[in-house]
Amino acid sequence: MVKAIQGLVFLMATVFMLMGLRWWFDPAGSAAEFGMTLSTGAGLSTEIGDISSLFITGSLCMFLGLFKKDVRWFYAPTLLVVFAAIGRTLAWAFHDASLALEFILPEVVFAVINLTAIKLLDEA
Q1: pLDDT single digits (tens) 10-56
Q2: Which of 8, 25, 52, 71 is the least buried, fewest Cβ under 10 Å from its Cβ?
Q3: pLDDT at 123
Q4: What is the SS3 string spanning the chain?
Q5: Is 0.85 topped by the overall pTM?
Q6: CA pseudo-torsion sign 62, 101, 82, 29
């Protein structure tokens, strides 16, 4: 079970890294994947910088947690996706956004996997 959860975390970290790098090198494609249109000027800089930062930092934290065998590194990326899911839900509830279940559900699954990893790998 420990190897399986390590594999899942490694896979998620890899996907996060690829998503972050894609924001650097193909922001239009990344934005389209998230149902967004790109801003211009400082807004574009903010989109690319902030969103890529979220994914790359989350990825590096998970890789560090795996390679250093220190589950404390898993907390930051877990909190990032939990608050993203909460923010998406609040955007729907209070700001007339679409209910983006296609993004919220994977974020919840990601958080559950990371929380499971924290529990299992801390005991290993």
Answers
A1: 999 999 999 999 999 999 999 999 999 999 999 999 999 999 999 99
A2: 25
A3: 79
A4: CHHHHHHHHHHHHHHHHHHHHHHHHCHHHHHHHCCCCCCCHHHHHHHHHHHHHHHHHHHHHHHHHHHHCCHHHHHHHHHHHHHHHHHHHHHHHHHCCCCCHHHHHHHHHHHHHHHHHHHHHHHC
A5: yes
A6: positive
